[in-house]
From TrEMBL:
ChrR-like cupin domain boundaries: 8-107
Superkingdom assignment: Bacteria
Organism this protein belongs to: Flavilitoribacter nigricans (strain ATCC 23147 / DSM 23189 / NBRC 102662 / NCIMB 1420 / SS-2)
SUPFAM superfamilies for this protein: RmlC-like cupins (SSF51182)
Protein name: Anti-sigma factor
């Protein structure tokens, strides 16, 4: 483990976006910017960008999730979340996500999601 604080700083003003790629899932219009990687190489903290009309399929969060809308708006389980809205979903909460306008979301996801 590095003892230099600079090794743990991520610039979120100009994030490095890469297309989200998950086998067997249509992730067109979704981009991810990893903020932190855990000991297993999995990113529990990340930014997710939705282009207008993009969506993420119905899924379960075995350990819950936290998200904050940084830009734009999205629809989760029928609720519209806008810039500044925070959402905590408890363990085993199931939903899909879509954005008609495009958005950028900050996520904390302790465990991998399960696509349903």
């Amino acid at each position: 483990m590095s003892t230099k604080i600079e090794d743990y700083i991520v610039n979120t003003i100009s994030p490095k976006w890469t297309p989200l790629s998950e086998p067997g899932i249509d992730t067109a219009g979704l981009y991810v910017s990893t903020l932190r990687v855990d000991e297993n190489g999995r990113p529990p903290s990340f930014l997710l960008k939705f282009e207008p009309g993009a969506s993420y399929p119905y899924h379960n969060h075995p350990a819950g999730e936290e998200l904050l809308v940084l830009e734009g708006s999205c629809i989760i389980a029928g609720a519209t979340l806008e810039k500044g809205d925070y959402l905590y979903t408890p363990p085993n909460f199931k939903h899909s996500v879509r954005s008609e306008t495009g958005c950028v979301l900050y996520f904390v996801v302790p465990e991998e999601v399960e696509i349903l």
